[in-house]
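S2.1 Query sequence (Gliding motility lipoprotein GldK)
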Amino acid sequence: MKKLIALTATLSFLISCGSSDRGELVGVRGKNWRPEKPYGMSLIPGGAYIMGKADEDLANVQDAPTKTVTVRSFYMDETEITNSEYRQFVEWVKDSTIRTRLAILAEEFEKKPGDGGIGEFAFADADTTNQSAYDKYMYETYYSVADNPYEGRKINRKAKLITDPQKYPDEYYVEVMDSMYLPASESYNGQRTIDVTKLKFSYAWMDIQAAAKDKSKNTRTKRSKYMKKEQVEVYPDTTVWIKDFAYSYNEPMHNDYFWHEAYGEYPVVGVTWMQAKAFCAWRTLNKNAYQKRKGRSQVNSFRLPSEAEWEYAARGGLESATYPWGGPYAKNDRGCFLANFKPNRGDYAADGALYTVEAKSYDPNEYNLYNMSGNVAEWTESSYDASSYEYVSTMNPNVSDNKNKRKVTRGGSWKDVSYFLQVSTRDWEYQDSARSYIGFRTVQDYMGTQVTGNGSGL
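Output structure tokens follow.
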């Protein structure tokens, strides 16, 4: 018995000596963490505000009665997502698609790095000589037995893609690149065009709302039941400039607006709600890949703002204002318009712009957000229900209904009258529809010390 007590005491002493907590409850300590302001975003300090129409409901829609609600702090893009920013997404998808096709063909024909041809683009885990125990386990346990044996494989991003057809290294490379373009019979003016239907982004997400309401006790089954996989064509629909306006000449916008550098800093349009969601998933993936390489903590997901968040941010801390600048007028004291919209019937250019303007135009609101009214309307995360203000929570209100395909858009656009520019005006569009006057901006949840717009941080 004495020996047992002595052994226990010795073990306790050794455990205590091997730790720096001196036996106290100090918690698990990780790396020091400091909030990092995302590039191009402003911090919107959370707080309470009166959501809904403070002015007369001229359109008599009666879908926005006033209601005091509170939202948490978040970051928001200072501008709408631009053509240049969205092209970064499209180029990443194109690059990844080409590299994946090259890697698959290299594997099928057993081509390896060092042969000077397509083998240089083989999957990063194709060379098993230096494969880590983790990669070997994942390959043998998951990838080799999956329905799609290439899903989850690491593509080789180190090898530089060859874009000059005269320098393609072998016939396999030619085959892959040729498959990315429209057939020669569909080309004109001596130019072959990328087949944009090949540019698809795949991502997964979990329907936490539905999972939380599931009363099943089998957690694993419940989780897999609500995991969703999406595959979205990412290229904007440039034909919206034609389809949105019958009997109108807008071919120059269709031809040049998205890809030409002249419009690089203009807001992207022609994107559906689903494409905007895919962009958010990619932006999160892209940022966290960088964080991982640098050994840093992962960041919160980028996402679309809820309808309540959008309105709170648009108000810029001004209570019951009509517009982001206060209002109730769309002109300043010098008679200059304060946003890009259609001031008069048939007169799109009275405000100085026929179509959209650069994303960083006009003066920002008090949260340093540009064009929260006008230029392009913006997708939000929320589903549209005319009576939703009657039943949503007063804390971070949001209607997230996957069965409701009508999604809220806010802010009005270059082709709208001033009523739609009011921060409380609600509008909607179907989630699979793309328009020449709808774009988006993203938000990211704020982590760390709570800050509010109604008082000092705690």
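DSSP finds eleven helices and twelve strands in the chain. The two ends are 54 Å apart (CA to CA).
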